[in-house]
Amino acid sequence: MRAELERRFFLWMLVAVTLLFGWVLEPFWGAVFWACALSVIFYPLQQWLLAHLSPRRGRMALLTLCCSVLVVVLPLLAIGASFAQEGINFYSRLQSGEVDPAKMIDAIKSAFPAAVSTMQDFGIDTDNLRIKLTEFAMGTSKVLAGEMLAIGQNAAGLFLNIALMLYLAFFLLRDGPKLLHLLVEALPLGDEREHLLLAKFAEVTRATVKGNLVVAVVQGTLGGIIFFLLDIPAPILWGVVMTFLSLLPAVGAALVWLPVSLYLYATGQWVPATVLIAYGALVIGLADNILRPLLVGRDTKLPDYVVLFSTLGGISLFGINGFVLGPLVAALFMVFWQIFMTEFGHNPET
């Protein structure tokens, strides 16, 4: 009886201390998560370096980390800095009236009266829609400018998190196999289940970050290039916006380039509008269909509707980290249910 009481008390204390440790690390959850993601993504590169250059794990982990900085961290910082500057400039142009969303919407309404009439037939108040869209554009740009300013003022905190992420990623790369062995030994789920769950974690993380993020960056870059060539204001800003939207299947970058092309048609700019629609459908759109299967693989891809809802839900709960965490939670949910149905489901032979 006493031994059982001690065991239960120990387990409760174990849970309490684990939760307390997680609470202590709460300010650095983002750094910890991205350190894990970087180590998972670049682990195959480290294995190749160990096999072809040197068996010293410490040196190869450092070399792998340097590659991740050159390939991922520095380009993202450069894009973020350009995005911040473009966002602040765009907000200034909205405030000065140089860019007027209301006029743009009025131009589209006058150019496509049949569409306006159809919307009114369905009970959609186009005037109210115009006001709401204008308020949304002003509010979003104001929030964006404020967030970019706050990030700039808190640059020390940003670079601290990046430094902590890289520091932890180095040890995860160097000691990854040992840590995984300890994790498998500690978790009371059964070794086979644990290996399956860890494999799914690595699979979905690589697929989401390496695949979806690369596809999103390519689509955003292609969109920014065509916006620049067509002399559309703030091409870097819209390119980054298209990058984020490209993380969502079924909708993606078309939420930006399609309305812009309609506005160009509405203002009589037929050639740029036609070029933008053709480029968006043939180049930006096909980039997803060509690159995603090559980088992700069809076997590891979740259904598009699961990715869409889990990504939106993840972003709403976890912020920018949610575009990975959302699909990851969805994938683990499906794996747990797959294990349950396999091991505990109804067996027709019994």
Task: Describe, in plain words, how this protein is organized in 3D.
- Helix 2 crosses helix 3, helix 8 packs antiparallel against helix 9 and helix 12 packs across helix 13.
- The chain is mainly α and 350 residues long.
- It contains 13 helices and no strands.
- It starts with a helix and ends in a 7-residue tail after the last helix.
Short structural description:
With 350 residues, the chain is mainly alpha-helical.
**Proportion in helices:** over 70%
Oligomer: single chain
Compressed to H and E, one letter per element, the order equals: HHHHHHHHHHHHH
Distance linking N and C termini:
37 Å
Shape: elongated
**If you compute it from the alpha carbons, what radius of gyration comes out, rounded to the nearest whole angstrom?**
25 Å
Number of helices: 13
Q: Kindly report the average pLDDT value.
A: 76
Low-confidence stretches: none
Question: How many β-strands, per DSSP?
Answer: 0
Fraction of residues in β-strands: under 5%
Task: Quickly give the structural class.
Answer: mainly alpha
The major β-sheet equals: none
